[in-house]
């Protein structure tokens, strides 16, 4: 891949960078893009000319090359370091034409780094509606750069962009060597002597941002500090002065290249749709009502619409298994295939409709610009709990999956706000908990009943669980706020983008990527655990398993047929390795109402909680009660009898105790690994695991003791 | 000294300077330059954060952050 041409897409947030990326690369993306988290670089392939594919690198949106948060650091680490494996051959700066000056600030910085650059002017129609006519030919001449007019959303102007890119790649327009503001010549000389030749502005970037750049080690960072001291260079002052200076120059250029038709009747700005919608969406009362209503509809939809495809998948897997058992010889291998592998795969596939629905809603909220309003109206409340308006996105994304949600905290500037958000995000009920909730709610909440005759009671119960997770996250955040010390102060300066119609292609791509990532990432773990579990549940220590059949026949001489084989199967499970593990922890979980079978599921789901349903189906299909007519996991669990009371095992007390346990417990290796990666310390994943699991145990204990 | 936090909804002001060095760079980059006109357009519920129109787009910030931006009335 060494010779592949690579182009970086750079731009302000909301300038249309991701739209352009999707337009250029379509489905040819290598990395998944979760909604609201272009937190990492994304790569895709673009066919520039017939037979010439180049790599497109989409970077997080930034306002300037001086990073304020961790997601923004990535950009200078790539653009500032020519030895970086992702260092681009050139850059396309995507600029929102309706906000030209602010977008050109970033453009001028990128170009001064010495990277050949094309300026892609997006949203020209928006600018024209506001009364601004841009002469892009003149702009190209003034800035000495290739300018392409594009409409990233509609995919217009890609031809012109290709020409501009090809021309720029050929000529490799260099930047002007002058710095935006002069500094002592010896300073740049000193930097270049110690750290190698580079464009002067790049040398200056190294000097000012050395602490955030991974290419420098500690001794190098110290020598940068010495250089700054020696030359009395103050980077904060320089950056501010540079920004003002750049804006002055940009204003002059814009003055010459943009005609403002509004000037004659400048008095009142035009009332836009965004202004009108904001009257309602960020209203002090209706804003919250609408937000809650949207969330409620989202859950109601996920619970009711998604059940149809889910039942189909569930039933289909059960039928496939029965059919395979019918035609294949009765052997351990058949058992591994049906009860181990296929049951495990079915346990993965069944999540797909709900995950797709959740990501559909989250990505729609992002797409339309509504998510920023939510941050705006929630900031004050979140601040009381040690969080930040921006914590809303991780918390809402946490409904889908805590892993991308924790990654999305990188946009939160203050370390303390960010750390607290990371620690509490897994309390939000993620999609892996959904199937557990679904199965258990179906067992303990009556299906037919409705609240006020409108809302499905099961939907209400589900909504309640999500709310519970949310309030527990707030409460934990508040406690953490009291314990943790702040390193710097928190701030909340953010653009409110205009409302936009959703780009359905965008939505579709993000659903596709999320579902794909889920099936392959989570799927691998689930299938592996299912197989291991099947082995442990099918074999036992010594020759105990072999003797069971004999013993059961001896003890129950009257049993025949199905009853006999069921009895044998459940005795076998009890004496298997898995059964022994379950029995081992039974004393610890008895106060929560759980037996050794649930114990097995608890153990397996500490790696990944989504394994619960798969484990249950493995355990109960091995443990007998197999009624081929209706062999879904739900029915199997419903048929389970509590050996102590003779009543159904899954009564309200046990059901709610399990629900609460799964709502609070930290049962996800991927999340812990992500927390470690994002905090760079084992301390925080351990804290996260400890407090959540303790919380889960205590809460489940209380619920079971009160209800039973 | 009048600051952006003193504006009421619908009122105009012109930025004259900043009192916080760390925040000022972020604000400058976002287009809040001395001499720029701002209009306060919204309060979030409970009066904080605030939203303002500056350089043709809507910017939000907390009240305490707005208090670091000095303005004069227009």
From TrEMBL, chain B:
UniProt keyword Iron, yes or no: yes
Domain Ferrous iron transporter FeoA-like: 2-73
Keywords for this protein: Iron
Record GO terms (molecular function): transition metal ion binding
InterPro entries, alphabetized: Fe-transptr_FeoA-like, FeoA, FeoA_core_dom, Transcriptional_repressor_C
Protein name: Ferrous iron transporter FeoA-like domain-containing protein
Species whose genome carries this gene: Aquirufa nivalisilvae
